[in-house]
Each structure stands twice: as structure tokens, then as C-alpha cells.
């Protein structure tokens, strides 16, 4: 099995599902359809190439947010760990691609999103380096 970090842009297909493991682990899962869009100079038009489906796993807090937010057809950006597996299913070789998502966001090329911000409770002034003590103070 080969694993690497990946960022995908695509569309949620099918339903967003939820499963609970034990008392403290939640898994929310959906399928992501993605394709390469490129300009074909011979046809003088944009064409779709390399369509792929990924299973996206979202655990715990991220999963809860995905479950409340995403619906089939939503265009999203998914960043996470890609796991590829090839296996034999009797008469055919199969390929499975999963992403354990670390973060998910809206694809703002196709939609506007209003982000609700919690009130900032940090310092009012920009953070600066701490004042350094004078060299004489260090020698004492």
C-alpha cells in the first residue's frame, strides 16, 4: 500500500454517510468525483480527462462538520492522506483509492461561501518580538 499527502478538487457524489465506532470514534464518509479539465488545441475546446472516484474518510470533529455541511453535488477541496490499494476480486483486478481527510473546504471558483467568525479574543495589537534585556543585565 502506497500513502502520500494529496489535495483534490471535485464534487461530492452520493450521500454523506455516518458510522460510529465504539463510544468515541465517528467516521463520516463520502465519494468524491474529480477530473482533469484541459484545453485541447486540436478541437479548440475544453475537454474532460482522467475521471476518478475517491472515498473520503472524515473522522470525529471534521466528520461532524462535513455531516452538517456537505450535500451531493457540493464542489469541495479535500486535503489528506491518500491510500491506494490494488487487489484481486476473483476474475478482475480492482483498484481502491481512499483519502483520510485532514481538511475540507468549499471550491470558491463555483460558489460563494459566508464564513462565520467567532469573536477574536487575542491581543488587540500585532504580536512583536519580546524586548531583549540589555547585554549588561545578562552579564550580572
TrEMBL record:
Q: Domain of life here?
A: Bacteria
Q: Which Pfam families match?
A: SSB
Please list the GO terms describing molecular function.
single-stranded DNA binding
Q: Which UniProt keyword terms apply here?
A: DNA-binding
Q: Where is this region: Disordered?
A: 121-140
Q: Which InterPro entries match?
A: NA-bd_OB-fold, Primosome_PriB/ssb
Name the chain's protein: Single-strand DNA-binding protein
Which organism's genome codes for this protein?
Actinokineospora terrae
Lineage, uppermost ranks: Bacteria, Bacillati, Actinomycetota, Actinomycetes, Pseudonocardiales
Amino acid at each position: 500500500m502506497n500513502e502520500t499527502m494529496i489535495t483534490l478538487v471535485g464534487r461530492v457524489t452520493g450521500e454523506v454517510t455516518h458510522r460510529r465506532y465504539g463510544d468515541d470514534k465517528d467516521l463520516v464518509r463520502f465519494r468524491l468525483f474529480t477530473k482533469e479539465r484541459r484545453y485541447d488545441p486540436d478541437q479548440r475546446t475544453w475537454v474532460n480527462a482522467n475521471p476518478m472516484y475517491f472515498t473520503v474518510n472524515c473522522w470525529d470533529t471534521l466528520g461532524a462538520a462535513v455531516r452538517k455541511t456537505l450535500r451531493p453535488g457540493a464542489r469541495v477541496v479535500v486535503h489528506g492522506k491518500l491510500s491506494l490499494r490494488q487487489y484481486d476480486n476473483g476474475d478482475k483486478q480492482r483498484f481502491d483509492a481512499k483519502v483520510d481527510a485532514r481538511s475540507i473546504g468549499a471550491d470558491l471558483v463555483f460558489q460563494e461561501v459566508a464564513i462565520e467568525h467567532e469573536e477574536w479574543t487575542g491581543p488587540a495589537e500585532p504580536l512583536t518580538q519580546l524586548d531583549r534585556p540589555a547585554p549588561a543585565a545578562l552579564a550580572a
